[in-house]
Design goal:
The structure holds two protein chains of two kinds.
Chain A (H helix, E strand, L loop, with lengths): L23 H5 L4 E8 L2 E6 L4 E7 L4 E3 H14 L3 E4 L5 E5 L5 H10 L11 E5 L15 H10 L1 H5 L7 E6 L11 E7 L4 E2 L1 H7 L2 H7 L5 E6 L2 E6 L9 H5 L3 E2 L6 E7 L14 E7 L7 H17 L6 H17 L27
Parallel strand pairs in A: 7-8, 8-9
Antiparallel strand pairs in A: 1-2, 2-3, 3-6, 5-6, 9-14, 10-13, 11-12, 14-15
Helix pairs in contact in A: 9-10
Chain B lengths: L1 H8 L23 H4 L9 H12 L2 H16 L4 E2 L12 E2 L2 E2 L12 E5 L6 E3 H14 L3 E4 L6 E6 L1 H13 L15 E2 L13 H11 L1 H5 L9 E4 L8 H4 L2 E7 L4 E2 L1 H11 L1 H9 L7 E4 L2 E4 L9 H5 L4 E2 L4 E7 L13 E7 L4 H21 L6 H8 L1 H8 L22
Parallel strand pairs in B: 8-9, 9-10
Antiparallel strand pairs in B: 1-3, 2-4, 4-7, 6-7, 10-15, 11-14, 12-13, 15-16
The chains are: A alpha+beta, B alpha+beta.
């Protein structure tokens, strides 16, 4: 330990308070907003019942930031937004100002510093994503690198508002899918059962916990070289990697056998259709750092077809519901295969229980 | 790791001289040709950010982490393992990371993260953010994630023996650690009444009050598994609460949508009758909107508060005046029963007064008590409800059965009723 002598008594304060973090115009009109407009991509204008207006400029960030970058954002906020800023759940930064004349110079300065202004309305917004090789203890791939590669490829779509509706992206570095449900999601899919490190297993794992973690009851206790260990019924194993989180000796990650899958049609909003979960539309894509071109190519195909065929306000999943999965695969050039037929619990709810057929 | 060994034997790049540091050009960092590829392209590059920070501050941990990340990009494997680091009196909030290959990258031996709870709605003033940066740079690497998937500020890269002092200095400025493990987790709120005309309750206030109430079990986890709150101001659910939280608190209203007739007219004149029919009326999921004498008419009893028409015509339409929240429970991702969307357990609660907030928190305590009794180890509350039954859950927590809680009554006849 260091020589630090503690004198401070902890205050268990919970979340930081927010009132001092709200722009005075926001404080004054708190809960009394009337409507908003999107005058141009990356800019929102909110009008309050009092007649006050506040302009928001939104810009993309790498999410994986540094104190240097945060200080630059603070400089912008001090210069143009009276010292206030906030972030969106998709890692965009927002500056709120009551001075309309600050909007254009702020946009120019953000762009000159490399922060793309956009992320509003019918755009492809920034990616909700995980930690990956940089920090996670169970990742099969990196997250920030995949995201950087994806956002380079949809940079224009982030900055304009030409899609049928907003497109939410996410990535996840294992099948737990911390990135969440999204219009288009990139999720790791392992293709081989875990290899078991019998030398370490009993030392690093609670055996019953690892057994209980398996969703298909494929793990059983055994003895190897006189040591308590586990075995996997490889015929039953679905290569989900759940056991690895409970027991690091169940080595699921592999440079060649951990692949990518692409999922579409997730939606959290209640607008129009009820929220929906994603469906798999491509898998067995290689984990190919540093730019993962195979993944960005699939995303490009989906976005191109959706942009061309989606009607105003249709999210990706709603567009597919209208045109049908058959046409989705035709129009994106992706290939449906029998692994895409659900085989897990409640699988039949995804079967076509009707005579509705598309030819 | 067997896979790692396979890959290591084929590796092309090896950072043999990491400890010496530098590439001979007066640079602090070692060469990272794979990571450098991520400096190309128009989107802001986290690698450029890391490199700039490392060259300015010359912190060895940054160099070690860059070297290990470059190594991961070559071997396609990760090399962090967990452990247990915390601050006095807490059992959670520091995500511990030790390098599995510290012989190769001794500068990356430790790379712990401090989860910090931001203000609800992710609002900042620059003074508080600069203060946070200064304390963080003093003790840690200076890498910050804004924000993690559960809503924390993540300060990434600190050594175990610096954690307590860093925390104490942050705590003096009003910051507290976030959640981890089997307890209450950090909450997330949308911007709410801070800027949005659709906010149906003060989600920032409820977030702050609820998370302060549960702060003990956030710092000292003792439940079956994690429990996450998310607070969305309206059914657009910008925090993705339905899918990403055990307790999804979503603003809604009970009376009629407020219509500004003049603004509807102005919208129709600007966008045309085709747009009114194709983009508003036809997209209403319950066909609650029709044309009456050429004017848009909303049948309130058919409306399910989906938000679509309000999103299309924000100037003309607003949520009703009788506002409150719906509570949905059980949202979580795949492991292990498959993706679970949250489902409705309380159709409506007022959320205007301090008493409303108190009643809400009491109800949540009832729910948690039930889960502590009925749940199994490593079982999220939605999984417990699925295993035990929604009816049994409602009985257990004293909630009323309501037809809104199901999409339809049961379709199979196998059940036992107390006739």
């Amino acid at each position: 330990m260091s020589s630090y002598q503690r004198t401070w008594k902890t205050i268990e304060s919970g979340p930081h308070t927010y009132e001092e973090a709200l722009h005075p115009v926001v404080r004054k009109n708190y809960g009394k907003w009337k409507y908003h407009e999107i005058p141009k991509p990356g800019v929102l204008m909110h009008v309050a019942e009092s007649g006050d207006a506040i302009w928001t400029v939104r810009a993309g960030t790498p999410r994986q930031d540094t104190v240097d970058m945060v200080r630059v954002l603070c400089d912008i906020a001090d210069k143009y937004a009276d010292g206030y800023l906030r972030f969106t759940v998709r890692n965009n930064v927002e500056f709120l100002t009551p001075n309309k004349e600050h909007v254009e110079p702020m946009i120019a300065e953000l762009e000159s510093l490399g922060f793309p202004v956009g992320g509003t309305g019918m755009c492809v917004s920034a990616v909700s994503h995980t930690q990956g090789w940089l920090h996670c203890d169970i990742p099969a791939t990196d997250a920030s690198g995949v995201v950087k590669s994806m956002m380079d490829s949809v940079y224009k779509e982030f900055k304009d508002m030409q899609m049928p509706n907003k497109v939410r992206l996410s990535t996840s570095c294992c099948s737990i899918n911390c990135g969440g449900q999204a219009d288009i999601a990139i999720v790791v899919k392992h293709t081989r059962p875990p290899r078991i490190n019998h030398d370490h297993l009993a030392m690093v794992c609670e055996l019953p916990k690892a057994v209980a973690r398996c969703p298909v009851a494929a793990i059983r206790p055994t003895v190897v070289n006189g040591k308590r260990s586990l075995m996997v019924d490889e015929a039953k194993c679905i290569c989900c990697g759940a056991c690895f989180g409970a027991c690091p000796a169940m080595e699921i990650n592999h440079p060649e056998h951990s692949k990518f899958a692409v999922w579409v049609g997730g939606k959290n909003s209640n607008a129009r259709t009820k929220p929906s979960t994603m469906s798999i539309v491509a898998h067995n894509l290689p984990n190919n750092p540093p730019r993962w071109p195979e993944v960005t190519e699939v995303i490009g195909k989906i976005l191109t077809a959706y942009k061309a065929g989606g009607r105003p306000w249709e999210r990706v999943g709603e567009w597919i519901n209208r045109i049908g999965w058959k046409r989705f695969f035709e129009e994106t050039g992706l290939t449906f295969d029998d692994n895409m037929i659900d085989s897990y619990r409640h699988a039949r709810t995804t079967f076509n229980q009707s005579a509705h057929v598309r030819f | 790791m067997e896979g790692a060994k396979d890959a290591a034997s084929q590796e092309v790049h090896h950072c043999g001289g990491c400890n010496a540091g530098g590439n001979g050009n007066g640079k602090f960092l070692n060469p990272t040709p794979m990571l450098d590829e991520l400096e190309n392209g128009p989107w802001p590059s986290f690698i450029s950010g890391f490199k700039g920070l490392a060259e300015r501050t010359r912190k060895p941990m940054l160099r070690g982490v860059m070297d290990q990340l470059e190594y991961s990009y070559n071997t396609k494997m990760g090399y962090w393992k967990g452990g247990l680091v915390t601050v006095d009196g807490y059992g959670a909030g520091i995500i511990t990371r030790y390098s599995m290959i510290k012989d190769k990258f001794p500068e990356a031996a430790e790379f712990h993260t401090m989860r910090i709870q931001p203000a609800p709605g992710l609002h900042y003033n620059t003074a508080m953010l600069r203060e946070l940066c200064d304390i963080w740079e003093k003790h840690g690497t200076g890498i910050i994630t804004l924000h993690g998937q559960t809503g924390d500020i993540m300060l990434q890269g600190i050594e175990q023996d610096k954690v307590q002092q860093c925390f104490d200095e942050l705590n003096q400025k009003g910051w507290d650690l976030g959640g981890a493990g089997a307890g209450m987790r950090t909450g997330v709120s949308c911007i709410g009444p801070g800027r949005c005309e659709n906010a149906c309750y003060d989600n920032l206030k409820l977030h702050l009050t609820a998370l302060k109430h549960f702060v003990g079990v956030l710092h000292r986890p003792e439940w079956n598994y994690k429990l996450k709150f998310k607070f969305s101001g309206c059914p657009n659910d910008c925090t993705n609460a339905i899918m990403r939280s055990d307790l999804a608190v979503i603003g809604t209203w009970r009376d009629a949508i407020q219509v500004d007739r003049a603004e509807v007219k102005a919208w129709t004149e600007k966008n045309g009758m085709d747009a009114l029919v194709n983009q508003v009326i036809n997209l209403c999921p319950t066909r609650a909107i029709s044309l009456k004498d050429g004017e848009m008419h909303i049948e309130t009893k058919d409306c399910v508060r989906c938000m679509h028409c309000l999103n299309v015509m924000p100037k003309a339409l607003s949520p009703g005046r009788d506002r409150g929240i719906s509570l949905l429970m059980g949202g979580k991702n795949t492991l292990k029963v498959g993706v679970n969307m949250g489902s409705l357990v309380i159709p409506f609660m007022k959320m205007e007064t301090d008493e409303d907030i108190e009643a809400f928190i009491e109800q949540i305590e009832e729910i948690i008590d039930w889960w502590e009794d009925a749940g199994l180890d490593h079982e999220r509350i939605g999984e417990t409800i699925e295993r035990v039954g929604l009816k049994q859950f409602l009985d257990g927590v004293g909630l009323e059965a309501d037809i809104n809680l199901v999409s339809r009554p049961r379709d199979n006849p196998y059940f036992k009723a107390p006739y």
